[in-house]
Amino acid sequence: MVLLPQSHNEHEEPQRDVFRSSKLEKENPVSKEIVDCAFKIHTSIGPGLMESAYQECMEKEFIKRGMSFKKEYQMPVWYEEERLQTPYRVDFLVEDCIIVELKAVEKIMPVHQAQILTYLKLSDYKMALLINFSSPLIKDGIKRFVL
Q: What is the pTM of this model?
C-alpha cells in the first residue's frame, strides 16, 4: 500500500508506506554488504569451485564483517495450518531480513529463480539474493528478488 500526498503543493513531502520503506532501508545496506562479500570472494578465487567452497567463504566474510546470519536456515513450511516435517533449507538468512541462495552452475535456470520466489512466498522475508559464482563476471551472476 502506498499513500499518496494529500495536496498538490510541491513543497510538501508526500506520505508513503512507512513500514515497507523502513524494511527496505534496512535491507538495502545489508544487500549491498552481501554483494560486496560476493565480489571479494569471486575476485579472490574466481569461478570454477563447488558451491560448498563459496558457502564457506561467504560464512567467513559475514563473520569478518560482524554480520549476523543463519547458515542452512531451515524455513518451516505450513499446509492447512499444520507444519510439514520437511522444511526448505536456504543457504543463508542474513541479518534476519535477506535470504541468500548460492549456486555454482553454468547458467541460472528458471527453476533456480522459482526456488527463490518460493522461499519468499513461504516466508515473511521480502528480499532474496541469488548468487551464481560460476559466472565469469560476478555482476552477471547476482540476481536480486523483492516481493
A: 0.80
